User: Fold these one by one.
Assistant:
Number 1:
Amino acid sequence: MEPAYVRYGGLRRGKGDKFMKLTLDLVKKNSAINVFIKQTEKYLDALGYTDHGFRHVNIVSDRARSLAKQIGLSAKEQELAAIAAYCHDMGNFLGRSQHHYQGAVLFSQIFMDGCDSPEDISVVMQAIVSHDKDELKLVNKVSAILILADKSDVHRTRVKNKSLDKIKNDIHDRVNYSVTQNDLELNRAKKEISLRLKIDTKITNPVEYFEIFIGRMTFCRQAAQYLGYKFVLIINNFKLS
Ligand SMILES: [Fe+2]
Ligand SMILES: [Fe+2]
C-alpha cells in the first residue's frame, strides 16, 4: 500500500499535491536546513571561527534582498538572493574548505524534487557555490548579490570569543572586532556600490584589514562589475576604489 505522504527530498507532500514554490519562508521552516545551520555553528565554534550561524545568515539574507531590490532585480530574483544567502554557509559542518559545494548539494537534495522550478534551484546552487569559489565566473546576478552581502558582514558582533587574549592572537577576530559599523550603500547615479567601514584603529589598522580581506575585496569588485557597478571601499572616511 502506498503511504499517504511521500518524502520528496525532505518536503512532505500529499499524493497529488502541486509542487511547491521556493520561498524564503519555506526554506526557513525546513527542519534539515535549520539542523545544518546549527551544526555549522557548533562546528565552527569548536574551530574558533567567527560567527557563521543564524546571526550571520539572517544578516546576509536581509542584505541580499535589500541590495537586489535597490539594484532593480525582479521579485523572484530578490527571493532567490535571500534564500541563497540564508543557506550559503550551511555546508561548513562537513568541512570548511569545500563548504560552498557541500552547501549547494545539500540544498538541492532537500528541494529539487519538491519544488516547482529546477531552474530556481540551480540559480540558488550556483550562488551558494560562487560565494567562495577560487575560479570565480559569474553567470547570474543572484550570485553577485550574495557575494556583496556576505563579504560585507565584517563586524564586532561576529566575534564569538571576546576574550582579549584570543582577539590579540587571532587576526580574523581582531579585524572583525575592530569594525564597529559596516554599511553597504548603492549609488545608482554614480553606479557605485560602497562598503563603508568604521574601524577602531586601537584594535587593528587598515593594513591588517587588507591582509585578511584582499581576497574578499577582489570578489566584491568582480561582483559589482558583473552588476554594472564599481566597488568602492571606504574605511574611516578614506575612500579606496
Ligand atoms: Fe562561506
Ligand atoms: Fe558567509
Number 2:
Amino acid sequence: MEIDADGLSIRDTYALMTGIVVPRPIAWVSTMDDKGHVNLAPFSYFNAVGSDPPMLTLSIAARGDGSDKDTLRLIKTTGFLCVNLAEEGDAVRLNDTSAELPAEVSEARHFGIDTAPCFKIPGVRIASSRAALECRLVEVHVYGRKHKVNLVVAEVLHLFVDDALLQRGVPGLHINPAAVQPIARLGGANYAALGRRFSLHRP
Ligand SMILES: Cc1cc2nc3c(=O)[nH]c(=O)nc-3n(C[C@H](O)[C@H](O)[C@H](O)COP(=O)(O)O)c2cc1C
C-alpha cells in the first residue's frame, strides 16, 4: 500500500507513525510549580540528541483546545524538567500518570508516587526511578498545522544513577545493559519490555 501523507487524517497519521517508529523510549517527566505542586507525565516522542553537552528532546502535543499540557506549561514557566527512567515495574503507575488531572492536582500525590529533591535543579525526581536526568530548557520549537506540537530541547545538567545500574570492573562510567529493564512504547495502548540483548563490535 502506498500512502500519501498529505491526504491522511490526523488519527490515521498518528496511528501509523506511532506503530512504525517503534519501540520508543519513554521519558517519565517530573516538573514542579513555584508552590511545590509536582506534575508527572510520560512522553514517548522522546530521545537523546547529543553528548557535548548531553541534550534530549521531547515532543509535546497541544491539547485538543490548543492549550499547553501542564508539563509544557511548567517547563516554559520554570525552565526546568527532570526525566526519570521508567522500568518494567513502573508500567502501570507510569500509564496512570498520563491521566489528565486538574493543574492544581499533583500526580505524584494523587497516585502515591514518592519523590526526592533534585540535586541541581529546583524540582523533584521519582524516588524509585533508578536513573534521572535533571535538565534545563534550551528552546521550544513549535511545529504543525492545525494541531501543534512543541519540540522541547533540553540540556542535561545532572545525572542520578543508582549504583546497581553501573557496570563493575570496567574503566569509566557504563550502564550495565543487563541491569536496566526499560519499558518502551509501541502503537496504540501497547508497550514492550526488552527481549534478547546482543552485542556487535563496530568495524
Ligand atoms: C506511554 C505514553 C507516552 C506518551 N507520549 C506522549 C508524547 O510523546 N507527547 C504527548 O504530547 N503526549 C504523550 N502522551 C500523553 C500524555 O502523557 C498526556 O497527555 C498527559 O496527560 C500529559 O500530562 P500533563 O498535562 O500533566 O503534561 C503519552 C502517554 C503515554 C501513556
